[in-house]
Amino acid sequence: MKLDLNKMKDFMVKHITFQTVDFFEQYIKNMRIPENNQIGISIIIICKNEERCIGRCLNSIKKQICTMDEIVVIDTGSTDKTKEIVKNVISESKIRDVVWKDDFSYVRNIGIDFAKNNWIFFIDADECLQEGSLKNLRMFVAFAETFVDQDFAICPTIVNSNSHITNGVRRIVSKKSGLKFGGRVHEEIRCEKGKLGYEVNAVAFDNIVLFHDGYEKDIIVKKDKIHRNMQLLLKMIECEPQYPRWSYFLARDAKEELSEIKYEELLLETVKLSDEKKIFEYYDIRALSDLTSLYISKGNLDKAEEILIELKQRAPELSDIVYFRTYIDFCKLKEKTLKLLIDVCEFRETHQNIEYGSIHSNYFHIDFLIAKLFFEIGEYKKAFSILKKLKSEKYCNDDEYYLRLLEAVEKYLDD
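The chain above was modelled as a monomer; its predicted structure follows.
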């Protein structure tokens, strides 16, 4: 395949996001046609008890590889049919057994040592690779082989089963760069021991795509990921207490297991450790967003608005701000609706005698209003109890409206 430099530059501009503009400009400046663009990729898959998905993962990769590529599966103690499936899809010689030591970075770094090629792509067993991704990666690293001024990692686009997309997870690295992983869980690529991941330059691709389903609720429960991640993250907080990455991920991953107070404390600690530093911006923004959501759920709208102001200062264009601003206003409307309901109920309790000349002398119009307000705040049984009475009295009949609503609800539930 003959590579055209101008086409390659166009390819980069269209599909790649660089961490910094300077890095991008320096990369473009140093680009030249490589003498040999037949680059082999080592694909490393770490797994334990992944019979559900390992075959799917391997098959998505196998049909894209060339003779210079390799797939290496590192098994950390499977007791199901994982290894049997691997042997059927690729080769037994490509399985490496490694003892699990409560440290994902340890295993990934062993994977780097196992790899025969310079460029290494880590793919998880619960992911599958979009067709054409290896071709796009190969095109890029053919140029990267000639760029030695800086070491950098490459981020594929990861599409989760709920359609949430991330492109900041660093999964592809050059063996010659000496870059290694650090962190027991939610591990990151680091340039050397004692350094943190943000010090490594990275490029992100939108046309190297992984589809991931490992964080669906039933899978999380079955593999006990919450408790596993909690224990490993607590160890990382003990090891690197000033790094907001660990407090944020502990809050995010263990939310269902933590008390509300502890969850709030971890998010506040993340904001404090981030200290508005650009290098910690991701954790700062996510923690502020989660805090806003927490205070809304607690009904503390004043506190939510206070945190929202901070969030807007950090990331004024973030869609979370529109969402929370609108949701807070919506909650205030709900509060106002409740207040209207209380007021009209108090009025009704004090007005029992026949009132000549009103819309309805027995206050059925007021009862109808109360029913509608009950419906708006989610008190459906109370609402329909009043509406049933009004229907029997021949005051109103909203059957057609609620039948349409029922039809829409049933369709939603069936889908």
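Residues 1-5 have pLDDT under 50 and may be disordered.
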